[in-house]
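Journal club prep — side note

Before the paper discussion, L.F. wants everyone to see what a predicted structure for a comparable chain looks like in token form. Sequence:
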Amino acid sequence: MLELKPKTIGTKNKVGRVVWAVVWFFLFRPTPRTMHAWRVWILRRFGASVGERVKVYPTAKLWVPWNLTLNDDCCIGDHVRCYNVELVVLGEHTTVSQYSYLCTAGHDYNDVEHPLMVAPITIGDKAWVTADVFIAPGVEIGEGAVVQARSVVTRDVDAWMVVGGHPAKNIKRRELPKND
């Protein structure tokens, strides 16, 4: 797990977020579910790094596109909240399912000023974050891992591990069928 570091949000970032919010509301959110290419085009115009055959559903709420990397064949499902004050990276063939929350920021409760603290989230290739999962700042989810529904992930997840619960704990190693 990566350590949280302080971050100050500048005026340029704030103005960009206002413009993005307007574009999201009028041009991203009201589009038909099948118009993934249009939404990807908009994300790229706002600085997101987006691979091929990516699906982002219209009800997904992305804080800022310029802190987002979506590799080939990944998917962000309906009603996902991506509070990406810091970078969020989704690997190839990775899915973040409906109602999940990716949170890259929090506040230092040990400081009376409560400064903003951030750390990136990385979700490896072929991983699956199932429905209504919370992922905390600084978490890295390994290749092929599966996070079960309604889990809270506050620590890194090993590759090819199935985790679940609150907080998420290892359940078993993921084994894929062998091709004959």
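L.F.'s comment for the group: Residues 11-28 form the longest helix (18 residues). Keep this in mind when we get to the figures.
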